User: What shape does this take?
Amino acid sequence: MILFRLIRESYLFALQAIIVNKTRTFLSLLGITIGIFSIISIFTVFDSMERSVHKTIDSLGDNVLFVQKWPWVMDGNFPWWKYIQRPEPKISELEEIQKRSNTIQSAAFMTAVNRTLKYGTRSIENATIIAGSHDYEKVMSLDLQEGRYFTPIESAGGKPVVIIGSDIAEQMFENQDPIGKTLKIFGRNVEVVGVTVKEGENIFGTTPDDQSLIPLNFIRTVIDLRSVSSNIIVKGKPNISNDEMRDELTGILRSLHKLKPLEEDDFSINETDLISKQFDSLFAVISAVGWIIGGFSLLVGGFGIANIMFVSVKERTSQIGIQKSLGAKNYFILLQFLFEAIFLSILGGMAGLLIIFLMTILVNTQSLSFQLVLTLNNILLGVGVSGVIGLVSGSIPAYNASKLNPVDAMRSTF
Assistant: This one.
């Protein structure tokens, strides 16, 4: 096949150019290497960050809504003076939602405070204490590595029991089994009934491993819920969209708050999709910046490839004349030099990808909140962009070579 012959000869010529003119080839390909490194390294970092962000957001559930006082997404004209006057969600509202709603599968009331945990001489200050109603585990992800969840009697009676994060278990109990041990929270003895699975720190710098969960009715005996921020979390039934849930919840809450038809809502219904869209917009901007930064290097690299090919055509002018005199068609000469330019450009791109791969290995040895991964898509993108740069840069030298007069070419001496 003539195609395989072309590819083989182009590969051999490209290899010869590298061997014979190492310095010139290295300097010419350096622009492609730097350009691919700049673009793909940015994409690798932010793809890894984006994957970690979405993993963290998805852990909240994609069919879960949060009824709160404050919205998650705030624009430049944020009317904080209106939001600050809004009422906090109430437990009575949770009960009404559970009675009236036809779209939700589960609902829970949740609040969080920071307090000191004590066990013997050990203590953890400013630890996050989450208090949830009994269905909290049904609306939020809660994986236990040992122990159990609260019983209905413990939740209803506000029993002093707690489920702790894995970091708290390690710090407070070291090699001891924490189940059945007693912690002091709010100055009261609280029995440990469960330990959550270790998850590690997320992209936002937080982790559930240093949090504790207690029954909502227990915290009501030690603090006034009106003094803290609270949420009502609802999870939809299968095949029920968030928009359907939102519309129904809006109607229920407006009725409970006795709002007139033209009055604004005095509550916010938040969902994880709002955060995802904000981050998607951010990553789109970063992607554009990456193309701009790497584009200049690729432009320089393209000129480098063109320079190699012009010199290669000049050096092999007499050889081209001989090939044509033996019957080589113009397209054969054209494709031969185009393939050579593409091979050289892809070689520079592969060098850039190799540097990124080594960088990911080095970075992943450090303690980061996310793993840096050079994905197959980014590898293919790097190789594809390199190939296109080679094709564009080599087109004019290849065209000039294909149009050489065989007699004049054979007479040429370099």
